[in-house]
Amino acid sequence: MYAAYQKGDESQLGRLVQIAGRPDYPYATRKSAVRALGEIGSNEGLTVLLGILHEFDRRTSLKEEALVALGRIGDRSAVTPIGRLLDRSLTEPNADLRMMAMPVLSQLGGPEAAEILVNALMYYDVLMTRAEQQTYRGVFTGDEQEIPALRDTLRQPGAPRPGINDLTGRGASAGGFFGSDVDFTPEAWADTTPKERDMAHESLVGVGSPAVKVIQNFLESYDTTTTLRQELAVIVGRIQEAEPPVTPADAG
Question: Where are the domains of the chain?
């Protein structure tokens, strides 16, 4: 069908959209149709591709193919649904899906994508801080001592001013980190957090100048760890270095 479309048979586009949106069709057939929709790059497949992100299926390769296609289409209306997909993925160890989604957000760009990626960095910072503070060594014996878990959940009754003392920097009503209200299972991230944090970092850099204002607003609104502040400062620096210098003609 894709070959026929390339030869000028535009009716095949509708057929590809239909196949991609049929859960009763073979999984591999749907993946091929989704891949073709991404290569065509038409907004006609947008609704079906977004629907695939929300299908209940533990297999992730079709969703990953849909993410790639959405990145190629380039419609920023996909940003919020991708954020919701990221929130839901926190209930399972779906590192591959998250690693696929973050560069797509970078590719789509814009302030909303930047905000989701900043939230991702904050979340990974919470997990890594939490892991580092689970134990300490006794002052007098040097023996490793356990301390109470800092959080059994990443959401708790909020303080009037969000800050590092509540780890997330958010109040109880903040909902999901990426835009929806879900329960998290941070234990699922234990082995992949550093890798995913690196991906979020690079993806946020890739958003470019729209991310700078988002980062500034975040730092003005939340008290956070020194580590995260330093990381965000590095990201701003990299973005500014990559931007072409402003000439007098540009300024005028």
Answer: 109-251
